[in-house]
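Quick board copy: two proteins, each given as sequence then tokens.
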Amino acid sequence: MKTVTDSFVSLGYWPSAGSFGFNTDILATNPINLSVVLGVLIFFGKGVLSDLLDNRKQRILNTIQNSAELRGRAIEQLEKARARLRKVEMEADQFRVNGYSEIEREKRNLINSTYKALEQFENYKNETIRFEQQRAINQVRQRVFQQALQAALGTLNSCLNNELHLRTISANIGMLRSMKEITD
């Protein structure tokens, strides 16, 4: 390693008049070297750098334009989605309101039909009670009539003798003949 640094150090001792060599004075050579390198880079690299920057600028503009288009489409889709959401919410509210009104209507119909059924049952009960009362009254009448008839027959049989009995039968037969003659 020492021989490599010695060779660079020995280059500084070469005479500079009329010959080509390296200037090892860093402060004097850096601005000159930098200006030469920059000049060469600017001269030859200007077109390449300009093309690179133009390509990069075009890609950035294309990306911005694509992003703007995507943003526009996204906003459009968002508005469509919001419109659909509003529509669905309105339909849901309408279904909810219709559902509640349908429930209320069914509730009223059920209550009304229950009241009608109760009225019919009450009417049926009252008719059944009246029918049973009428039947009981008819049975009592029939029994009273039978008892009265038996009492009357008993009274007649005890009061009537054969002769009175024959006269009553003859009178009734005479009345029946006179009624028959009137109808003929």
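And the next:
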Amino acid sequence: MSRSKKKINKRVVDSDLSDFLSNSQLIQMFLLRLIKKGKKRLAYKIIIETLKNIQNKTQTDPIKIVEQALRYTTPSVEIKARRIGGTVNSIPIELDVDRGTSLAIRWILSSCKTRSVKIKTMSHRLASELIDNSNKMGNAVRKREEIHKIANINVRTSKNKVYE
């Protein structure tokens, strides 16, 4: 018996998809954080719809809006609990750039998941959250400011450095 060749179904890649996703590493990071249960194609669709919604709402380049939102939400400090002399102290630790961006992406996605029920689709929620964060008004920006405030309060227990 000869073995028959299996038919390979090649998916046609959208031109929008290749344009937006091939060049930006930040969009790729968002895509990898969006994937649930291996559904990469669904994550692609959400990202493309999000970028189109940002384009329609702001009439500017959506990649620049995403970069600006990430710039405003990326923390430079993380709070770690350390036990010193029987008491637990919150000590600020400086973050690497990669760790900061991954935290910012995680915060943006978690805040858009808890966004109001009036906005039904994930792409609309993510688009409005990114636009709010690029205007320094989003929930992720507030979280960053709270962490920096806690770090400035607890700075006297560690190095005397003020974080902004």
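Board note added afterward: Strands lie at 77-84, 87-94.
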